[in-house]
Amino acid sequence: MDLPSNLLPDEASPEWLNKGDNAWQLTAATLVGLQSIPGLVILYGSMVKKKWAINSAFMAFYAFAAVLVCWVGWVYRMSFGEKLAFFLGKPGVALDEKFLLGKPFLGYFPTATMVFFQGVFACITLILIGGSLLGRMNFRAWVLFVPLWLTFSYTVSAFSIWCPDGWLAKLGIIDFSGGYVIHLSAGVAGFTAACWVGPRSEKDREKFPPNNIILMLAGAGLLWMGWSGFNGGGPFVASVDASLAVLNTHVCTATSILTWLLLDTLFFGKPSVIGAIQGMISGLVCITPAAGVVQGWAAMIMGTMSGSIPWYTMMVLHKKVKFLSKVDDPMAIFHTHAIAGSLGGILTGFFAVPKLCRLFYMVTNWEKYIGLAYGLENGRTSAGFRQMGIQVAGIVFVTCLNVVSTSLICWFIGLIVPLRLSDDELQVGDDGIHGEEAFALWGDGERFENYKHNSVYDAEELSYVNSRPMVDDP
Question: Rounded to the nearest 5 degrees, what angle is found at the Cα of 381, between the Cα atoms of 379 and 382?
């Protein structure tokens, strides 16, 4: 049968290329990118005290750019390229058309699409780590931290878990779309880095109100809707499994939000907007390792647990455990990513459906990829317990890796530049660090008026006058 002319292979559309898969994967990658730029930029910039709005947003903005340059320079091949060791690939450039226009290690689209898709995943990981360091990390130290952590920590997790040659991948760990590689890594690395950098100023820790709650919700909404690409792009194909992953993602997240709000209302008397956002993030993180391999009812159970267990660790346990309370984590990345990511990994090992795993992994090996619940039901108990063991082993590996690598990186950076801002910069905030202020209008009608300043961009320094009409002096 003759194919329509638009489906005939040619030099730009080789026989192995699936145009639908390529279109969806590029769309999914763009949705993931939008989670960071502008999603987390807006969320961070509006969720902090107004004097930290620019610095917090700019940490995310810088990280996105720096990661992409490093990614195509050497990091992509360390994460997904030819094996150098059982946990790492050989570094290499991902810029040549002969490499980028060929078929990747998985999928029916060009390697260029895979490089971009995986690149935006790496970007959001670093930005999530930054959430633990807002309001006190020296920006110059952050400039160094991003490429170093990407090179010496992210690559190891990604290769070990996602690359077909990775040791955990060969064992059969299930991490559908980054519960381990992205969220657990970010939660542990952020918490570890926060220990090294130290807390915010005492005044900021006592009172740190968001500067714009409505804008904060807009950033959270971009993060939530962008997760359709985050988990929907996990199968690398526009398949039925991608559809299931998207639906499970939003069902789990909605359940998590409602659970968190219920607990806030029962224990504190009022539903909190910030609490709803934390419940949203916990739900998104928890479902990520399981999105396309569990039933819808299991996604709702996971949402209930992600809305309650991280709530407990954040609202109750954090205050009771001295070590946790001493570490300053402004965005609660440890609870919403390390705790929720670990929870998701364990629940994946329990609820993973063998048939759905076969749709995702395209394998027929019945000794791999079976949740404990189905192992108990089908008389394959040992296989179910084996899967749970692998999931727990992955948590231990990623946790130990990030504690050690992040500590070494922070120690090394501390030899070059201070990890922490000076006391004067901590007191002033954005203007002391960047010479810029976030808002032109605030307070009781005050506005920017007389300009004099910023030597870099000729954006003048600002003095303030009351916005009411002024009468000339006689």
Answer: 130
Looking at residue 9, its pLDDT comes to 82
The pLDDT assigned to 455 comes to: 43
Per-residue pLDDT at 362: 82
The CA distance from 109 to 115, in Å, is: 11
Kindly give, in sequence order, each residue whose CB lies less than 8 Å from that of residue 341, ignoring residues fewer than 6 positions away: 179, 180, 183, 184, 187, 285, 286, 288, 289
Handedness of CA 309, 312, 315, 318 (dihedral sign): negative
**Structure tokens belonging to residue 426:** 């901590």
Answer for the pair 387, 370: CB distance below 8 angstroms, yes or no: yes
Please state whether 332 falls in left (phi above 0), alpha (psi between -120 and 50) or beta. Answer: left
Q: Give the residue, 92 or 368, on which the prediction is more confident.
A: 92
AA identity, residue 53: A
**3 state DSSP class of 140:** helix
CB 304 within 8 A of CB 265: no
**Cα gap 191→212, rounded to integer Å:** 25
| Residue 37 structure tokens | 């730029």
Residues 45/53, Cβ–Cβ less than 8 Å: yes
Give the 3-state secondary structure percentages of the chain, helix then strand then coil, rounded to 5: 65, 5, 30
Strands 462-466 and 446-451: antiparallel
For the structural domain made of 19-428, what CATH number should be given? 1.10.3430.10
Give the residue carrying structure tokens 């064992």. 171
DSSP string, 368-385: SS--HHHHHHTT-HHHHH
Check: CB of residue 315 under 8 Å from CB of residue 267.
yes
Query: Closest Cα partner for 305 from 253, 250, 248, 256?
Result: 256
